[in-house]
Task: inverse folding
C-alpha cells in the first residue's frame, strides 16, 4: 500500500486522476469527455515541459484514466 501511495504522490498523479474524474463527471457524452480530457492532460504536460520538466506519459494516462472512471460513474448514475 505504501508503494501505491508513494507512486500516486510522485508528480501529483493523484491530482491528475481526480481532475480527470471531474472532467468525466461533467461531460455530457463520451466524445466530449475524452476530447476535453485529452486537451487538459496535454495542456498540463505541455506546461510541465515549458517550465523545464519532462513530458510524462504516465501523468497523461492517469488523467485519461480518471476521465474514463468519471464518465463511467456518470453513465451509471444518470443512464446517459
Result:
Amino acid at each position: 500500500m505504501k508503494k501505491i501511495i508513494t507512486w500516486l504522490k510522485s508528480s501529483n498523479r493523484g491530482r491528475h486522476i481526480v481532475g480527470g474524474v471531474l472532467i468525466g463527471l461533467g461531460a455530457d457524452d463520451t466524445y466530449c469527455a475524452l476530447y476535453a480530457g485529452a486537451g487538459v492532460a496535454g495542456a498540463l504536460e505541455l506546461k510541465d515541459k515549458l517550465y523545464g520538466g519532462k513530458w510524462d506519459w504516465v501523468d497523461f494516462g492517469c488523467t485519461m484514466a480518471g476521465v474514463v472512471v468519471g464518465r463511467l460513474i456518470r453513465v451509471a448514475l444518470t443512464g446517459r
Summary: Residues 31-80 form one domain.
